[in-house]
């Protein structure tokens, strides 16, 4: 069924990687041991969506983990693993626990339905099913799911610069830290601060300051090529860069390039003491995470190096 007539928040989703509403068709996994049911449900739901079919619980679980669908339509009575066991398994796995599940079953007593909802299903459809009811309920759940994803992304993106925000950084650094600790890999971190930005605002006005912040953020983001390297807005005119699995030499080269390229952007800054253009100072450090250390200690070191970069004249990387 068409999604075109639905009321929906309009967001410009051309600004990758934060295309806030995915343009990919939604994926629905149908798990039912009766072939006729699978065929009918597939025909009902396939318009503008991708439908994946599983003929029993085991296959359902495997396909759910592999495809991470946006919705699962789950039969209850199946030979082997029942629908109840399938949903328990889905809800106990971090990667699948957030996928909404709708039961579709001929077990239709109030107790059956309550049991299914208690297991974490978002809805319960009785068999024999009415085609229009299946379509309407699926549409509702998918809409909720889209809105939820949209809000989750909005919560992690800085609205001015459209790079990640501090909250995303806090989540990301924990994951990266633990990952590098497990694999005994180095992690490099950097704090970046725009030089004499207060006087930039004084000279050109706050709106121009905002524009300069956007330009600098976008430029740095474009220079980070590997998918796991991230830049986030740390505070006012400060940014943080996380480079997982990156040794000190590589990190120094990347950050030196970034520092130089900002001055080469030639954003006029006539009241800067050290240049005619906007420049940044960077503090950086590399660590192999150890049991006793935390990522906060790395931040502390990096912050001291940033202070040194400022003290030594700005527009430089200190290590
Ligand atoms: P330094 O070289 O020592 O970093 O000097 P600075 O002037 O950049 O340092 P300071 O921390 O004193 O000033 C930071 C300025 O950044 C002050 C604040 O007005 C400006 N700023 C922070 N966030 C924003 C923002 O979102 N938009 C604009 N336009 N300015 C901002
Ligand atoms: Mg069945
Ligand atoms: Mg600052
Ligand atoms: Mg500054």
UniProtKB/TrEMBL annotation:
EC number(s) on file: 2.7.7.65
4-aspartylphosphate PTM sites in chain numbering: 75
Pfam families referenced in this protein's UniProt entry, alphabetically: GGDEF, Response_reg
Sequence ranges assigned to domain GGDEF in this UniProt record: 185-319
GO cellular component, one term: plasma membrane
GO biological process per UniProt: cell adhesion involved in single-species biofilm formation; negative regulation of bacterial-type flagellum-dependent cell motility; phosphorelay signal transduction system
Domain annotation Response regulatory: ranges: 27-142
Catalytic activity: 2 GTP = 3',3'-c-di-GMP + 2 diphosphate
Cofactor dependence: Mg(2+)
Alphabetical UniProt keywords: Phosphoprotein
SMART domains the record matches: GGDEF, REC
PROSITE patterns hit by this protein: GGDEF, RESPONSE_REGULATORY
Root EC class: transferase
GO terms assigned for molecular function: diguanylate cyclase activity
PANTHER family: DIGUANYLATE CYCLASE DGCM-RELATED, REGULATORY COMPONENTS OF SENSORY TRANSDUCTION SYSTEM
The protein's name in its UniProt record: diguanylate cyclase
Species this chain originates from: Pseudoalteromonas tunicata D2
Upper classification of the organism: Bacteria, Pseudomonadati, Pseudomonadota, Gammaproteobacteria, Alteromonadales
């Amino acid at each position: 069924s068409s999604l075109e007539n639905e009321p929906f928040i309009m967001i410009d989703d051309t600004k990758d990687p934060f295309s806030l509403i995915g343009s990919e068709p939604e994926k629905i996994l149908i798990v039912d041991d009766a072939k006729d049911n699978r065929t009918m449900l597939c025909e009902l739901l396939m318009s503008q969506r991708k439908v994946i079919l599983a003929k029993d619980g085991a296959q359902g679980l495997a396909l759910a983990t592999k495809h991470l669908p946006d919705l699962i339509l789950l039969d209850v009575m199946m030979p082997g693993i029942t629908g109840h066991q399938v949903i328990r398994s889905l809800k106990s796995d971090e990667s699948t626990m957030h996928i909404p599940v709708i039961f579709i079953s001929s077990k239709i007593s109030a107790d059956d339905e309550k049991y299914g909802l208690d297991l974490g299903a978002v809805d319960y459809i009785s068999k024999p099913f009415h085609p229009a009811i299946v379509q309407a309920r699926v549409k509702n759940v998918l809409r909720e799911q889209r809105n939820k994803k949209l809000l989750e992304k909005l919560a992690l993106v800085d609205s001015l610069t459209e790079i990640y925000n501090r909250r995303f950084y806090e989540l990301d650094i924990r994951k990266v830290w633990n990952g590098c600790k497990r694999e005994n890999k180095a992690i490099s971190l950097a704090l970046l601060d725009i030089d004499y930005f207060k006087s930039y605002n004084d000279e050109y006005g706050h709106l121009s300051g905002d524009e300069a912040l956007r330009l600098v953020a976008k430029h740095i983001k474009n220079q980070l090529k590997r998918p796991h390297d991230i830049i986030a807005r740390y505070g006012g005119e400060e940014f943080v860069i996380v480079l997982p699995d990156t040794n000190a030499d590589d990190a120094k080269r990347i950050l030196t390039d970034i520092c130089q390229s900002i001055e080469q952007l030639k954003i006029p800054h006539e009241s800067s003491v050290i240049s005619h253009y906007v420049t940044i100072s960077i503090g950086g450090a590399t660590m192999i995470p150890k049991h006793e250390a935390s990522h906060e200690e790395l931040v502390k070191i990096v912050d001291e190096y940033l202070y040194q970069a400022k003290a030594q004249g700005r527009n430089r990387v200190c290590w």
